Amino acid sequence: MSNKEVDQLVDPAELVEDVERVLRSTGVVAPARLGLEHRGSWLGVMPSAGQGFYAVKVVGVYPGNPGRGLPLVRGRLFLVDAETGELLLEADAEAATGWRTAAATAVALRLLGGTGGVLGVLGAGVQASYHLRLLTRLYRYEHVMVYSPTRNRAEKLAAQYGGEVAEPGRLLREADTVIAATTSREPVVLGRLLRSGAVVASVGAPRPVRELDQDTLARAQCVLVDTRKGVLSESDDVGEKLVEVVELGEALRGVKNCMPGEIRVYKSVGTAILDLAIALHLYRRLGHQDS
């Protein structure tokens, strides 16, 4: 399946339910990702298993590709029958990753109360685009604001959703929900500017990217994360000594609650558990209802 075919097949509301169902499950296994470097490029292999299936995502970062007119990031997602080894699904990873990351954020926002008011998005790349695409379909936001250092990209993205381009300071002060989807190495979410009760989602930003400052953590007191191990080992945004950390799955199962302070924060760096969820969603949407 191409990225375009994935986009056409996904049902946002059903995907969010599928992601939540997998996150609630205690029978899903996702070992640490394997990463390799060669000639300046990076290749990651991310396996997961559950509900009678294996999912494997193979994704690479190829710094020389933009100069060749090719994508910087390329990858494929596979779904395999765990009993027979039959390959059931193969799809481009970019769209699949965009959708599953945004769906997990939607689940977190439902728990944290970030489903209305003004939505502010920092960034105008792939993740920002998929988050706007999914969240505005599911939730009722009164207004959308977008910021990117590349203004024409911000203008184009904001226009798609009847929103406006806003400087980051204004966006942080006025937004009820803030999505940070950037590649910044300096914090873009400044806690002192956030309104009381604001909800922040920092997505897909492993080191050296840094999106949350210390004031944000201090005001949050607790951070909801996609996986504790992933966020603590791959990101510099959250330190367990600085703030309480609760996994999204733990919160959904009622094992542990994330008691917020003045603001509420969700942090994700990605997990193969979500790759299994989107692969199962696509497989089911193709007509395999028993998946």
Automatic annotation (TrEMBL):
GO CC field: cytoplasm
Transmembrane segments: none
InterPro entries: NAD(P)-bd_dom_sf (IPR036291), ODC_Mu_crystall (IPR003462), ODC_N (IPR023401)
Domain of life of the source: Archaea
Pfam families: OCD_Mu_crystall (PF02423)
Coiled-coil region: none
Cited PANTHER family: KETIMINE REDUCTASE MU-CRYSTALLIN
Record-given protein name: Ornithine cyclodeaminase
Species for this entry: Pyrodictium delaneyi
